[in-house]
Write a structure and sequence with these properties.
Layout: H1 4-25, H2 34-61, H3 68-71, H4 79-92, H5 99-117, H6 122-130, H7 142-170
């Protein structure tokens, strides 16, 4: 069964990838400084990725006891605690999650919040700086973009693996 929101986020991810390629290959847009292009790409990607990951967790774990530990992401606690619970849920399943990707996801949540709400929480800004991502939303680089996408694909892959494992077990 498909979900319109997961489908929409999937489409957004595909088109954001295509937009980067089209912009970089366009004769006049290719001349725009990377700091402008990649800051925009990163902001759009961060908004999409946080929503997408949270939607997958919400939809794929709904009424599913075997994925209750993943669903606990939405239980009360700080963003750090919630992301740690998600990390541990993947670790328990033997999926070898990369800690750096989860640290980056926390930073992306903070960047998203600052961008969407138009204001930084200073402790969140300090965290973003501490893991060497820009705390000025106009200062992203191509390397930051690669890093942000890696974080998204890593966590999305782990969620997909958990969903597949759960489906497999349910069909035995």
């Amino acid at each position: 069964m498909t979900n319109e929101f997961i489908d929409a986020y999937s489409d957004d991810q595909i088109y954001l990838e295509m937009i980067e390629q089209l912009v970089n290959e366009h004769s006049s847009e290719g001349l725009v400084p990377d700091s402008i292009k990649y800051s925009s790409f990163c902001r759009l990607w961060v908004v999409m990725m946080v929503g997408s990951i949270e939607m997958m967790i919400k939809v794929w774990t709904k009424s599913n006891y075997a994925m209750a530990d993943i669903a606990s992401y939405f239980e009360e606690g700080s963003n750090t605690e919630r992301i740690d619970r998600l990390f541990k849920a993947f670790e328990i399943r033997g999926f070898s999650p990369e800690r750096e990707c989860f640290d980056d996801f926390l930073a992306c949540k903070y960047i998203r919040n600052a961008y969407v709400h138009g204001q930084w929480n200073e402790k969140q800004r300090e965290y973003v700086e501490s893991i060497n991502l820009p705390s000025v939303i106009m200062k992203f680089s191509p390397e930051d973009y690669v890093r942000i996408k890696k974080c998204y694909y890593h966590i999305m892959n782990k969620l997909g693996m958990a969903k597949c494992l759960n489906t497999l077990i349910n069909n035995l």
